[in-house]
Structures are given as C-alpha cells and as structure tokens.
Amino acid sequence: PQGSEKAKTFVHAFLKRSMPKMKDEAIQDMLTRKAVVLEHYPKRKTKQKRKKAKGFTAKQRRELRLFEIEPEQQRYAIFLPLHELWKQYIRDLCHGLKPDAQPHMIQGKLLKADLHGAIVTVTKSKCPSYVGITGIILQEFKHVFKIITKEDKLKVVPKLNNVFSLELDGFISYIYGSKFLLRASERSAKKFKLKGTIDL
Predict the structure, then answer these.
(1) What gap in Å lies between CA 28 and CA 85, rounded to an integer?
(2) Integer CA distances (angstroms), 53 to 18, 50, 56, 58, 61, in order
(3) Distance between CA atoms of 148 and 135, rounded to whole angstroms?
(4) Superfamily of 71-189 according to CATH
(5) Does residue 134 sit in helix, strand or coil?
C-alpha cells in the first residue's frame, strides 16, 4: 500500500538524518528487522564543584585585629557577669558541685570545659613575676591565656611552665599549663591521662 511506502521512506530519511555517519547498507539492514530501536545517549551533566566559603587566614585576622580587646573595654567589672555565667555553666556541667561529688570526675569535666569567664590564679611558675596573677580568663589560645585583673590590666600569661588554680564552691582545681597546650575546641575532644606527678 501507498501508506506503507511513505512510512518506509520517512523512517529511512529519519535514520539518515539522525545518524549521518551510518552507511545506507546499515540503515537498510536495520529496516529489514521490522523494528527500529532508537538509542538515546543523554548528555552527561557536569557537576559543579561547590566553592567552599573561605574564612580569614591567621595573618588576616591579626591585621584586622579581630581578637584585640580595646583599651576602653579592658575593665574587670565589665566581665564579672561573664564569670557568673561561667559558674552556672560549670554547675550544670558537673550536675551541681556537691560535697559528696567525686573530685576526679569533676576534674575530668573541668579539663574539657570552656574556661572563658573563669577566675584563675597563677600558683607556680618558673618565672616568679607571674606568680600571684589573678583574674578572669577573657581569651584562651593554644599557648597563652589572656587574663583581666582586678586592677583592670590585661595580662598575657603563657601556659608553658605555669600552674593555674581555679576555685568554685569550695572545689579547687589545678591546671598544669605545660599539659594544657591545646585550643579550647581541641581540648573538648582530647582524652587526658591521669598521672601521679607532673613537673613544671
């Protein structure tokens, strides 16, 4: 019939146009099978790499003075509310500092706790000028504490070769700075080992 010839001509032309590299013999061979399977090759989508938001480098942070405390803000009284918040934070962390609480359990939690706002005192040091410094910890870095004293002086005290004490509700804890050379964020995940004697 005339309709089937038109259909055959259309399919042949369609295959020729769709697959220009295929020879006529190959097209004719496909048509003799009575069924044509049209293969579809979808275009591969190129994955767009997500750009990571880059923060400031340590050098840029220093240049921008992001962690600098302005002189007019260096007043002990300003940070007393921070100390009150810290005390409540420690009480909640230790489920209340009760007389029957086990000291080593509290000590273990304090080792991993955030110390910003704690009042500490330098009790021992290889440098005598540091002994007796007392104040609120404003900033903790890997190697130093920045402490504001009652005299409104900002002191930068190295952790190395210093022993610090902090007191809360009658419980006194000692921090051996030489074993504490970690950032606050790193310290929370570290496992501390109990040691009998620790030297400066």
Answers:
(1) 86
(2) 45, 9, 10, 16, 16
(3) 5
(4) Ribonuclease P/MRP, subunit p29 (2.30.30.210)
(5) strand
132 against 67, higher pLDDT: 132
Task: Spell out the domain ranges in the chain.
Answer: 1-31, 71-189
The H or E element containing residue 61 is helix 58-64
For 141-181, the pLDDT digits (tens) are 889 999 999 999 999 999 999 999 998 888 888 888 888 88
- pLDDT band of residue 121 (cuts 50, 70, 90) is very high
Angle at 165 between CA 163 and CA 168, to 5 degrees: 165
C-beta atoms surrounding 181 within 10 Å: 15
Tell me which H or E stretch contains 7. helix 2-18
pTM check: above 0.85: no
Evaluate whether 154 touches 147 at the Cβ level (below 8 Å). yes
Token code pair at residue 47: 């994955």
